[in-house]
Structures are given as structure tokens and as C-alpha cells.
Amino acid sequence: MSRKAKILTVKAIDAAISTIKKAERDSLELGDGHAPGLILTLRRGAQGLIAFWVYRKQKTKSFRGCKLGLGSYPAVSLEQARKQALTYAQQIAEGIDPKKARDCERAQKTEARRKAEEEARRGKPFREVALMWLDAADAEGEFADNSRGRDKAEGALRKWVNPVLGDRPVNEIDRAAVVELIHYKDLGAMRDTEQYCRRIVNKVCTWATVHGYRDESRNPCPASMRDPLLATACKGLVKKRPPKGHNPALPPECMPEFMAQLNKLDTVGAKALAFMILTCARQDSICHDEKGDGTYLGLRWEHIDLTKGIWHQPRDWTKTKRDAGMTLMLSSYAKSLLMSLPRFEGEPYVFSSAKSKGHSIGLGTMGSVIRGMNRAREQLGMALFIDPQQNREVVPHGMRTCFRSWLKHAALHGLRFDPELAELCLDHVDGDKFGGAYNRMGLSEEDDKERLKIMEAWGRYCMEGKWPDEE
After folding, report:
1. What radius of gyration, in Å, describes the C-alpha atoms of the chain?
2. Are 406 and 417 in contact (CB under 8 A)?
3. Crossing angle of helices 398-411 and 445-464, rounded to 10°
4. Pair (267, 235) in one structural domain
5. For residues 351 and 152, what is the distance between their CA atoms, to the nearest angstrom?
6. Residues 199 and 273 reside in one and the same domain
7. How many helices (H) and strands (E) does the chain have?
8. How far apart are CA 410 and CA 275, in angstroms?
9. Residues 315 and 219 both lie in one domain
């Protein structure tokens, strides 16, 4: 008759551990009389003492036998191991194989965890998935040929897409949501912006489907407006779209009159527009714009050197994203405008916003100035400042086109200039894909003098209406 094991206690376990540590024995097995088949194995190894629980059941006529691990000691206490061993004994008594039951339970838990993770992925907000797509697209080089590609995508998401779709689960974005987006602030009436936003949503949803965040194989936002549902829902907005074309530009012959009226306005927006015209700069080099990394753009006093007569734009302030940035030459007219501006302690921006402390003026401020000027002219029965070719009100960016047109006329009035240096006045680089890579020699002092001569002649024409060959 086999001897029944004593009921195992924590004190008995501690004593056995002490025996093993004293190197009296290399291994020891402790059975538990309260839960037959429960064994605590103690073993001394290279890593020190190892203690783990095992449930062992011998083979019988009705049971094939089993050996199941219950975990290490003391992570699994005596009470926990005993409870599990009694559960296994009860299963065997009921004709259940405990190993198969345990494997089945583990499989069910794994499947439940997988479904929960899948559900969590499907419930991910669109804005979070869009950010993951941005990082993936950036890493794959999607924006490699466009220095402002990522910033533009982040801007479209922040301004247009996320206010409508951002908080919705990406798996629930459907055609109805896309229609709602297109109607948001009449987005569908702005052809290029609407198409760009739709392409962004299309790419995010495609990426989400591939990476398991959507279970809907059909993309809810087709890149083409040929989709019947979108075409029908957005028909009214499409009719509002202005004719496609370039930014409406002011004819050069109208610039002196435009500047004369502009200079009568004593507002920050008017001064900023005048400075933009005199320097041929881009709006986002002067106005407030938030980048995806939290950087705020805007013309700062630290970028201006009135002594040398230069405006240095750091890398992020330029469209071309040259590491060295870009230096623009300031004409005497541009410097006079800057010197007339008030400067406040602790205010870094040249054209600071009155509404948002610590920010430069917004991107829409200059456009508002032009619209205000045209309203005043309309009340007086005067001709509006419009692009005669498009019959549309001029916009700030069109002033750069005005400068290009003026250059052609100025050449007929005695102004001789290097076309490449004239392009640099606009912060343009060589048009071919190799020129930008090989044209690294930098600008000489003579080149800077030539650029200053161009800007001085342009400033004189804007402010005085005189061509280079006029006294």
C-alpha cells in the first residue's frame, strides 16, 4: 500500500528550499496530501534555485495520464496551485482531459484577445490613422520630391478633413461622411482644395484597409468625382466653382495706383501686403502658419538685418527647403517701410496679430485688405483691381506674377538683368531636376548687387510709378 503524502505547508516548502540552498541535495520533489498529484519540484541550477509546480496523473484504464505545469513558485502560491490541481482532478473524475480543456481555454482566450484588438483597431479615430499614414508615407519617400508635401497634407487634414472626420472611427467612414466633408464650409466649391482633400482621405482609407484598420474593401472616397453618388450630392457646389486657372494677378500698369491706395491704409495687414509686394515674397513667409511639428512660421525681426539690407529666411520658411535657407535683398523702399513700424518688447513678429497674442497675422489678412480696397473703389464708382484676363479680383500671391510681368516691360525701359538672378528674387530654383543639384556655388557679391538693383527698380516703380529709364 502506497504511503499518502503529508499535507504541504509553506513552512515545509521553506525548509526544503533551505536544504537545497545548503547544497545538501541537488533536487527535491514535494507532494501535497491535500491535492493528490500536485508536486512542487525544487532544483539547483546554474542560475540558482528553480521551483515550479506540476500536476501529474498516472495512466489508468480510463485515462491516458498527463503532466501539466502550473507555474513557478512563489509566483504561483501553494493555495493557487492546490486549487488548480483540485480542478484538474475534478475534470478527470468527470471524464474530461484537463490538458485538452486547458488548450481549448487558451485558444478561446487568444481568439477573444485577437477580436478585441481587431475591434480596437477598427475603432481607431480617423485622425490617429491619418497620422500613422503620414509617418508611413514620409518613410516611404512619398514626399521626397515635394519639400512641403507633408506640411501641405497636415494642413489639409487640420483645416478641412479632421473637423469633419477626425473623431470618427476610421472603419465607419463611408460615402455619406465624404459627402458631408465636401459640403463642409463649401469645400466642394474650391476645386483644387476639394480634390486634394479627397485624395488624402482616399490614401488614408486605402492604407487603413491594408493594415487592418478597416474591414470595408471598397474605398469610401474615390479619387475621381465620377462616382454617381458624389457627383449627385455635390452638383450644387460644383456650379459655384470659379473657372480653373492661375492666381489672379494685377497688371503691372496698375501697380502704382494700387500701392498709392494701399499706402493710405494704416493697418498691420496693409503694411504686410506692401512689404510682400516690395520683396516679392510668399504669404506664408510673412504670415502665421502652424507646421505639423508645432513650429509657428511668420516674419520675425531676427530674420531682418537692416544694416546689411537683407532678409534671411530659414529653411522652414522657404518653399524650396534649402538647408541654408534663402536671403532676399531689401530695397530702400522695403527698409523704409520696416523702419516705420513700431517694435514692442517681447514681440518677435514684424507683423503681429492684434487678435492672437504671440502670433503673426493670419494667411487671410492680406486678401481681406485687397477686398476692402475694392469695396471702397466700388462705392466711389472706380475700376476694381482685377485680373483682366480672368475677370477675377486679384489675390496676394498674384503680386508675384505682376513682378514677373513687370520684368518683361522693364527690359524695354533700360533694365538689364540676369534671368536666373531675377528668379532668385522670387525664391525660385532651376526648373530642371539636375540644375538644383549642381548649382551650389552660391551667390557672389556682384550677384547680390544685381539682385538689389532689380528690387530697387521694382520698389521705385511700385512707389513712384517710374520705369528704370525715367528720371
Report:
1. 37
2. no
3. 100
4. no
5. 23
6. no
7. 18, 11
8. 21
9. no
In whole angstroms, what is the distance from residue 181 CA to residue 161 CA?
7
Same domain for 396 and 268: yes
Would the pLDDT of 146 be above 80?
Answer: no
Query: Does residue 246 sit within a domain?
Result: no
pTM attached to this predicted model: 0.53
Q: Are residues 107 and 130 in the same domain?
A: no
At what angle are helices 268-279 and 332-339 packed, to 10 degrees? 160
Which residue among 220, 240, 260 closes a domain? 240
Average pLDDT over the chain, rounded to an integer: 84
Residues 6 or more apart whose Cβ sits within 8 Å of residue 66: 55, 56, 57, 97, 98, 99
Q: Would you place residue 32 in the very low, low, confident or very high pLDDT band (cuts 50, 70, 90)?
A: confident
Structural domain total, the chain: 3
Whether the bond into 169 is cis, omega within 30 of 0:
no
**What's 157's DSSP letter?**
I
Q: Which band of pLDDT confidence, cut at 50, 70 and 90, is reported for residue 323?
A: low
Q: What is the mean pLDDT of residues 227-241?
A: 68
C-alpha grid cell, residue 221: 472616397
Query: Angle between the 255-262 and 268-279 helix axes, to the nearest 10 degrees?
Result: 150
Q: What is the CATH number of the domain that holds 196?
A: 1.10.150
Which own/partner pairs from 220-228 qualify as long-range (CB within 8 Å, at least 24 positions apart)? 220/173, 220/174, 220/175, 220/177, 220/178, 221/173, 221/175, 221/178, 222/198, 223/198, 223/199, 225/195, 225/198, 227/175
